[in-house]
Amino acid sequence: RVFVAGNPDLPHYDYYSELNDPTYFADTSYSVIGQDSSMIMNYSIVDDYLVTHKNNAENDDNTNLRKGELVSSKAVFTSQGSYQTSGSLAKYSHANLENEPVYVTTDKNISAVTPSDVLGERFSQERSYYITRALEEETGLEDSFGFVFDKFYFLACANTIYIIDSLQYSVSKDRPLSHRQYECYYFPNISARVMWEENNELYFGMADGKIKKFVQNTPNDEGAAITSWWDTPFFDGKSFADKKTF
Using CA atoms, how far apart are residues 113 and 127, in angstroms rounded to an integer? Predict the structure, then answer.
């Protein structure tokens, strides 16, 4: 089925197609998700539930869960409750990273909808602590585009691509409510508007209509040399003596 939303007059309504027929939407095939003060932004999948993300719901109930059932041979989608999560700021930023729905929040960070270590109840946890300051200073973050490729989450915003690496994570004492923070990077001066995967390669489309791709193991950028350097602290044995190893 296809689920669609975005009616400016009914921002909390969405509509679903017939099974295996995305061209037909019955008159009664719609759902009302929360109040009209918050807009449906995007969807994700958690276990067997369809998760509907909103942008500014009361009491932070921005994530609604629905489960599909057959009642008298007719499909019925019933609400199974909601999670207290940060609102979604960028409707195109949603993606699944290692089974975690991630997105750009109204707090201007990248968060995941993930279970609590204590109660198991899901809520949003920040994953982008190391680039949060840069994200806060970005203009046009609401138009950013998110995509997952090879266990990395890429967020294209204006002239920069921000990246979080799910293979490398740590715990930050400055974010005690988030049980992990991912290593982060950024690619400056790349004005990607959309991204996709094709033949195991990452492509992106630019605002001017050009299509490009990232090529691995290439020592130049479209023929231009890439300037790079590696920096380390001094290995003089003094500042590291208390750790006994280098």
Answer: 10
Cβ neighbours of residue 167 under 8 Å, at least 6 residues apart?
A: 151
Number of CB atoms found within 10 A of residue 66's CB = 21
With residue 135 as reference, give the H or E element that holds it: helix 132-137
Residue 209 is classified by DSSP as S
Q: Across the strands, what pairs with 5?
A: 14
Q: Which long-range contacts does 174-182 make (Cβ < 8 Å, 24+ apart)?
A: 174/129, 175/126, 175/129, 177/125, 178/125, 178/126, 178/127, 178/129, 179/114, 179/117, 179/125, 180/125, 180/127, 181/126, 181/127, 181/128, 181/129, 181/130, 182/127, 182/128, 182/130, 182/153
Write down the pLDDT at residue 239.
Answer: 62
One-letter amino acid at 193 equals R
Residue bearing tokens 């921000």:
162
Beta-sheet pairing, 201-206 with 211-213: antiparallel
CA–CA distance, 210 with 42 (Å, rounded to integer): 27
What is the per-residue pLDDT for 240? Answer: 57
| Residue 245 reports pLDDT greater than 60 | no
Q: What is the pTM of this model?
A: 0.85
Share of the chain above pLDDT 90, in %: 58
Q: Which of 80, 21, 85, 25 is nearest to 57 (CA)?
A: 85
What DSSP element (H or E) covers 137?
helix 132-137
Determine the residue type at 66.
R
